[in-house]
C-alpha cells in the first residue's frame, strides 16, 4: 500500500465498509421479498399470513398513525450508532411498511419492482451524480437520450428532433408540458410573465382526468377557473362534442384556448380518451395536444392493446410512467416530445456557471426561437426542463428494458390486462356484485359494487340514504380485506362509493380467485356489522 493511502485515512476501507453493510442489508431485503412469496401461497384461499403481534399480515401492519409513532419512537442520536443502528432502523422500517411485493397489494397504480429494478437503484446510488450537464454524467446522459428516443418512437414520435426527458413523476410531467405549451405559444411570457398575455388562457381536460392538470394550472398562475372540465361518456372517455362546446364557451368568456389534456388510462376506470378525434380538434383550433399516458401508456408494448393509443403520434407531448404498470422502481417518469426543440425554447436559460456549452447552444431569448440547435446536439439535459438537479432515473427503464426486452414487457402488459378481464368475468357470475363501467374493462382496474340481494330494499332505491349505506358497505369491505391480507381501493360513484381492484403482472388466476373469496367473506361480515 502506498504512503499516500496510508496517511489519507478517509479513503481507506470504503469499499469493504459498503460491501459489508450491503451484504447485511441484502439479507433483510431478501427476507422481505421471501415473506411476500410465502404469503402468496396462502392467498389462494383468501387469507394472508397473520403477524405475530396480531396487527395485520405480511402485507401490512394495521396500527394507526398515532400508535405507530409511539411504537417506532424515532429519535435522531447525537452520536452515531454505526452499522447495527443502521440495520435496526432498516429492519424496523421494512417491518412496518406495506410490502408491495405481496400480490395482495392491488390498491394503487403500481406494485413491486423486480431484480433489474433493485440493481438499477443500487447503481444510481453508487454513481450518486446529477444528470443536469453532460460533464457530470456522460454515460447517464447518453442513456437518457437513447432511451427516451426509443420510447418516443413507440408512440409514433419518429422525427429527427423527437425524444424526451425524465421527470420526477407524472404530475411533474403534466405541469411541465403545460409550462412548455405556454412558453412556446406565448414566448413573451417567459420574459415578462403572464401579465404580458392579452387574454387569460383556457385549458381543457376531462372530468375523469388526474387532478394534477388543475394543480398545474394553479402552480403556473392560471387559476382553477382556467381549467374547463370536459364531460365523459358512459365509457369514461372524453366527449369530443363537449370539448368543442367548451372551446367556444372559453372564447365567449374572453379566454384564449391553448391546451388540451387527453388521458390514456384514467385513474379510476382506466378509460382511454378518443385520441384521433381529440387530435383533430386540437389541429382545427391550433391547440397544444398533450396525452397523459402515465397509467395506460404501457399498452403501447402490446400488439393486443396498442390500438387504444392510436392517434398518439399526433400529440405534441406525452406523459409516461414506467414505475406504474411496468414495475420500474418509483419514481421513473418521462415527458416525451414530438419536437424536443420546443422544450428547449420554453425552458433553456443562461447560466454560464453551469451550462458551459452556451457559445455553441445559447439559451433562446425573445425573437431568437428559430435559431435552435438540433435536439440530438444538446447534451446538457437540464436545458430541456425547469429542473436543475436531476436523478438518472432513465437508467432504471434502460436496465429493465435490457433485462425483459420489448417482448417481455408486452407479455407483462398482457398478463395485467388478462387478470383484470378474468376478475370481471368472475364477479359478473355472482349475483351480489354489480360491475361499474365496461366489461371487459378498458385497462387494469376492476370497478364494482358489493350489493347483496338480501339488502335490495335498502340499496336499490337510489336515494341519498341508499348511497350512504352503500358507501359504508364499501369501506367496511376494504377494511375487512386489510385484515385478511389484501389492499384494494374505492372511489365515489353514482350509487355511492364502489370498490376498485388494480391488477398487475403478478396477479395470477389463483390470486384473483383468492381475492374474490376474501371479498365475499369481507362483504358478508360487513353486512353483519351493519345489521
Automatic annotation (TrEMBL):
The modification N6-(pyridoxal phosphate)lysine is found at residue 324. InterPro entries: PyrdxlP-dep_de-COase, PyrdxlP-dep_Trfase, PyrdxlP-dep_Trfase_major, Pyridoxal-P_BS. Keywords: Decarboxylase, Lyase, Pyridoxal phosphate. GO terms for cellular component: cytoplasm. Its cofactor is pyridoxal 5'-phosphate. One of its GO terms (biological process) is carboxylic acid metabolic process. It comes from the Eukaryota. GO terms for molecular function: carboxy-lyase activity; pyridoxal phosphate binding. Pfam families: Pyridoxal_deC. Belongs to the group II decarboxylase family. This is Glutamate decarboxylase.
